[in-house]
Design goal:
The complex is a heterodimer. By secondary structure, chain A is mainly α. Chain A has a single domain (30-513), classed as Cytochrome c oxidase-like, subunit I domain (Cytochrome C Oxidase, Chain A, Up-down Bundle). In chain A, 66% of the residues lie in helices and 0% in strands. Residues 174-187 of chain B have low confidence and may be disordered. In chain B, 17% of the residues lie in helices and 34% in strands. Chain B folds into 2 domains: 3-36; 40-169, Ctag/Cox11 (Ctag/Cox11 (Pfam 04442), Sandwich), CATH 2.60.370. In chain B, strands 3-1-9-5-7 form a 5-stranded mixed beta sheet, with no helix packed on it. In chain B, strands 2-4-8-6 form a 4-stranded antiparallel beta sheet, with no helix packed on it. The chains are: A mainly alpha, B alpha+beta. The A-B interface holds A 113-114, 177, 180-181, 184-185, 188-189, 215-224, 227, 235-238, 241-246, 248-249, 252-253, 256-257, 314-316, 319 and B 1-2, 4-5, 8-9, 12-13, 15-17, 19-20, 22-24, 26-27, 30, 34, 37, 39-42, 70, 109, 111, 113, 115-118, 166, 168, 174-179.
């Protein structure tokens, strides 16, 4: 826009390409993918701290045996809402935020395909979580039946906040589905000329597949919560044996959603790590095509394994074996991915900046979480592990050191592109090492207490678990405090710092590194040519 | 919305609606699946014929009887015998005692469940109080019959079958529809 021209349309053109509006309205009315990405990321960070505060309550209570700080009923509400907030409020919006920021820049599109819907899908989220959080202050308390809201806990035995829980999950689901539709349409229609499907960066590929998973299973979750609502208030009997229903049916419906849901929370992480490792190994990604096929097969298999969450409900042996083998089969494409990441690093000129550190920690610790998942997949062993802290250790390894670490890695990796400033490397390394050590002190001993038989979701425990639980709590507090370093670092990076170059990282490749840092408000208004 | 986006958006919205419907379709699908496999331990609500009742004297199966009133149900409800060793194919009859201890007339419905679930397919009831609703006046006691035999085709792996009944109150507020009488099964 700097050239002087006599073209009569130039002025209108200039009007059209104005920068962001000022003040609050910029954020309320924005249809810009970068603004909405930022909103999603900040929202996820806020929710991460709210859910984290609840985890602190849980760990404070479990610091010693006996009831010290909260009543069992409130403890249950904390475990429930902690889970809901972290899954639907922190991890999923963070990935959607990253998709908003990065997918258009990576495929050379000017914006998301459906910008107004994009605004909607973000702005209904704060309402969903306000409803959920405020329900904690209702008479009878908030939802306390676990994030899995098994019937009849959520129907016969729940408080009236259940209705609010159901509505908030409906809104979260609508938001996710709208986000997913947007991502799919953007990827299918707005790729720059020459950007074939098999040239798309892996983050785009993994999000493409994740979006399909979201569309396939979020409506099933909406159905499940609706059935809970009508069972509780409108006299239906989907899950009530007295009326011909079956509570086990709830678990089938829930986990039909629930298992693909865990891949929704990890596939974009695979994409992030597949972007970061090649940059810092200064080698192209090993086995690009196999990564795409592995991601697709994980997504397809995720629909065939839901009953491995329900081995103890009593199933025919044939069904148990079927779900056991299908579950173990998932280790094959996942193994392909881990192999490819390691092979990418093999003989690479590696450097260890913070994004790479988080990505490396992801590879190691996510694999540990995968292995404990394999242990849980063994049906006879699962009867021992079911509903113990071993399960808690497993899913925190895949979700905290898996999903959350990948989001941290992504934040460090793309922060210079977003803000135009390099982040403080020393502070970042402090954040990484504090997080790495504390997260293992927090979650690793959970394997031991779980194997020894400590049940999950109980505010009190037998005395022999006291020492390990004190250690776990100390790890928990340390991990929570370490994340404050991250906030400090992000604030510092937004405010200023060393100017970032366009490419930012020496080995970075991809369209987003060809535009200036910070990324201009409107990028790729004319599509780039892909060779 | 640009024109080229519209077909994809429409398809994706249809997919969303279809998957919402699929969630509900799982309910009847699950029932059919359970009928075929006995997965959820529900026995047939139809009276069985004595066709397969050819006693197999070489084999013995332990049948255990559990009965309990639902939490909101004040009646006394228990089997007269707690367990029985039976030969598959042998027809037995046992009684369950129901006692309405309240001061008002009440109607009840018993819902059966068999464990292990797959054995439900081989537990044949020729007559059962669970086929109909039970109406007891204040303080009334009733011995309710159950006539059954274990199908000789019961797979070898099952040596014990547990039959459990839960008794629910039937009134306007609780929509009990399961296992209600099918009309011709008590003849």
């Amino acid at each position: 826009m700097s050239t002087v021209t006599t073209d009569p349309h130039a002025h209108a053109e200039h009007e059209h390409h104005h920068g962001p509006a000022k003040g609050l309205k910029r954020w309320l009315y924005t249809t810009n993918h970068k603004d909405i990405g930022t909103l999603y990321l900040l929202f996820a960070l806020t929710m991460f701290f709210i859910g984290g505060a609840m985890a602190m309550v849980i760990r404070a209570e479990l610091f010693q045996p006996g009831l010290q700080i909260v009543q069992p009923d409130f403890f249950n509400q904390m475990t429930t809402v902690h889970g809901l907030i972290m899954v639907f409020g922190a991890v999923m919006p963070a990935f959607t935020g990253l998709a908003n920021w990065l997918v258009p820049m990576m495929i050379g599109a000017p914006d998301m395909a459906l910008p107004r819907m994009n605004n909607w899908s973000f702005w209904i989220l704060p309402f969903a979580f306000s409803i959920l959080l405020l329900s904690l202050f209702m008479e009878g308390g908030g939802p306390g039946f676990g994030w899995t809201f098994y019937a009849p806990l959520s129907t016969t035995y729940s408080s009236d906040s259940t209705a609010l829980f159901v509505f908030s999950v409906h809104i979260m689901g609508i938001s996710s589905i709208m986000g997913a539709i947007n991502v799919i349409v953007t990827i299918m229609n707005l790729r720059a000329p020459g950007m074939t499907y098999m040239k798309m960066p892996l983050f785009v590929w993994t999000w493409f597949i994740t979006a399909y998973l979201l569309i396939a299973v979020m409506p099933v979750l909406a159905g499940a919560v609706t059935m809970v609502l009508t069972d509780k208030y409108f006299g239906t009997s989907f899950f009530d044996a007295a009326g011909g229903g079956d509570p086990v049916l709830f678990q089938h419906i829930f986990w039909f959603f629930g298992h693909p849901e865990v891949y929704i929370m990890i596939l974009p992480a695979f994409g992030i790590v597949s972007s970061i490792v090649p940059t810092f190994a200064r080698k192209p990604l090993f086995g690009y095509a196999s990564m795409v096929y592995a991601t697709s097969s994980i997504a397809l298999l995720s629909f065939l394994v839901w009953a491995h969450h329900m081995f103890t409900t009593g199933m025919p042996v044939f069904a148990e074996l079927f779900f056991m083998y299908c579950t173990m089969l998932i280790a094959v494409p996942t193994g392909v991915k881990v192999f490819n990441w390691v092979a990418t690093m093999w003989r690479g000129a590696m450097t260890f900046e913070v994004p790479m550190m988080f990505a490396l920690a992801f590879i190691v610790l996510f694999t540990i979480g995968g292995f404990s998942g394999l242990m849980l997949a063994i049906t006879p062993a699962d009867f021992q592990y079911h509903d113990t802290y071993f399960v808690v250790a497993h899913f925190h390894y895949v979700l905290v050191t898996g999903a959350i670490f990948s989001i941290m890695a992504a934040a460090y990796y793309w922060l210079p592109k977003w803000t135009g400033h390099m982040y403080d490397e020393t502070l970042g390394q402090w954040h990484f090492w504090c997080s790495l050590i504390s997260v293992n002190v927090l979650f690793f001993p959970m394997h031991f207490v779980g194997l020894a038989g400590m049940p999950r979701r109980i505010p009190d425990y037998a005395l022999q678990f006291a020492d390990f639980n004190a250690l776990i709590s100390i790890g928990g507090f340390a991990f929570g405090l370490s994340q404050l370093l991250f906030v400090w670092l992000v604030v510092k990076c937004i405010k200023g710092g060393e100017k970032a170059t366009d490419q930012v990282w020496e080995g970075a490749e991809g369209l987003e590194w060809t535009i200036p840092s910070p990324a201009p408000y409107h990028s790729f208004t004319t599509p780039p040519e892909i060779k | 919305m640009a024109l080229k986006h519209q077909p994809i958006v429409v398809k994706l919205c249809l997919l969303t609606a279809a998957m919402f419907g699929f969630g509900y379709a799982l309910v009847p699908l699950y029932d059919v699946f359970c009928d075929l496999t006995g997965l959820n331990g529900k026995t047939s609500s139809m009276a069985a014929t004595a066709e397969a009742a050819i006693p197999d004297k070489k084999r013995e199966v332990l049948v255990e009887f559990i009965a309990r009133p639902n939490n909101n149900m004040p009646w006394v409800f228990e089997p007269v015998v707690l367990k029985l060793r039976v030969h598959p194919g042998e027809i037995h009859r046992i009684d369950y005692l129901a006692h309405n201890v309240t001061g008002r007339a009440m109607t009840a419905q018993a819902v059966p469940s068999v464990s292990p679930g797959q054995a439900a397919l081989y537990f044949n009831k020729m007559e059962c109080f669970c086929f109909t609703q039970q109406h007891l006046t204040a303080g009334q006691q009733l011995l309710m019959p159950l006539q059954f035999y274990v199908d000789p085709a019961l797979p070898e792996q099952f040596s014990t079958i547990t039959l459990s009944y839960t008794l629910y109150e039937v009134d306007a507020a609780t929509p009990v529809t399961a296992q209600t009488a099918t009309g011709d099964n008590n003849e």
